[in-house]
Amino acid sequence: MDEVKVEETPTSTHTTINRTETQSTGGGSMIWFLVGGLAVAVVVIGYFVMGDGLPATSSAPAGGNVSVDIETAPAPAADASPEATPTQEAPEPAVADD
Questions:
Q1: If 84 and its partner were Cys, which of 48, 70, 79, 93 is the partner (CB 3.0–4.6 Å)?
Q2: CA–CA separation, 16 vs 11, rounded Å?
Q3: Mean pLDDT to the nearest integer, 58-79
Q4: What SS3 state is found at 32?
């Protein structure tokens, strides 16, 4: 907004014009907002990567008594005869001719 001030003296007229303009900062606040958001994202990712991540919840009963039953299948019967298992013979070493 222009401010116009007119002063009259007995011999001359003097006019002063003061002009004020606002200059934009060029989006400096937006840059700081983005930098802050990136910093928060790095901290959150670092917490999950370097730390244990989400805390595990306990699934044990409140009383502390835990009962586990494990059933196994019976082992297959092994044959007593040696012919039942295939055998491999080692190949003979090559003989070099002199």
A1: 79
A2: 17
A3: 74
A4: helix
